[in-house]
Amino acid sequence: MAVKFSNNASALLDGAITNSATSITLDDVSEFPTLTGTDYAYLTLSNAAATSIEIVKVTAINTGTKVLTAVRAQDGTSASAFADGDICELRLTSALLTDKTTEAAGDGGVAMSIALG
Predict the structure, then answer these.
(1) How far apart are CA 117 and CA 114, in angstroms?
(2) Mind listing the pLDDT tens digit of every residue in the chain (117 residues)?
(3) How does DSSP classify residue 57?
(4) How far is CA 105 from CA 45, 83, 96, 115, in A?
(5) Distance (Å, whole) CA 75 – CA 29
(6) Which of 25, 7, 4, 28 is nearest to 16 (CA)?
(7) Bridge-based pairing state of the strands 23-25 and 53-62
(8) Nearest to 68 by CA among 114, 106, 33
(9) Do 62 and 101 form a contact (C-beta atoms < 8 A)?
(10) Nearest-angstrom CA–CA distance, 93 and 79
(11) CA-to-CA dists, residue 17 to 6, 13, 54, 68, 87, angstroms
């Protein structure tokens, strides 16, 4: 299981989602990382005004249908409804950094502490 990321990945929601939806359709998934097996990525959902923000843990990306499979309300955020055309981005998050440093330490890497707040 590995947390995956990519630079400047961004897309728009292709259809509204409720606060309990676990399938999220985007207009494009080509910039997001390839997920296989137990890989995952943290993505941020945001409305156009950035007044509603939610971090989701994406466990699968279907490149054919452009559908993400997500675990909602991650990293201290609350699940929210989002509208068609709202934003989905791969941003630097506390959960991504924590998981990556834990993963590196488990692989014989150097453990480090990151304080965010």
Answers:
(1) 10
(2) 799 999 999 999 999 999 999 999 999 999 999 999 999 999 999 999 999 999 999 999 999 999 999 999 999 999 999 999 999 999 999 999 999 888 877 655 444 444 444
(3) E
(4) 29, 39, 14, 17
(5) 22
(6) 25
(7) unpaired
(8) 33
(9) no
(10) 16
(11) 24, 8, 12, 12, 12
Report residue 22 as tokens: 């676990």
Q: Which residues are CB-neighbours of 72 under 8 A, at least 6 positions away?
A: 19, 20, 21, 22, 54, 56, 79
Strand residue runs (E) in the chain: 10-12, 23-25, 41-46, 53-62, 67-74, 87-89
- Sequence length of the chain is 117
48 residue type, one letter: A
Report how far apart the first and last C-alpha atoms of the chain are (Å, whole number).
Answer: 26
Which residues, 6 or more positions from 57, have their beta carbon under 8 angstroms from its beta carbon? Answer: 40, 41, 42, 70, 71, 74, 95
Residues paired with 4 in a beta bridge: none
Q: Specify whether the CB–CB gap between 60 and 68 falls below 8 A.
A: yes
Amino acid 86 reads D
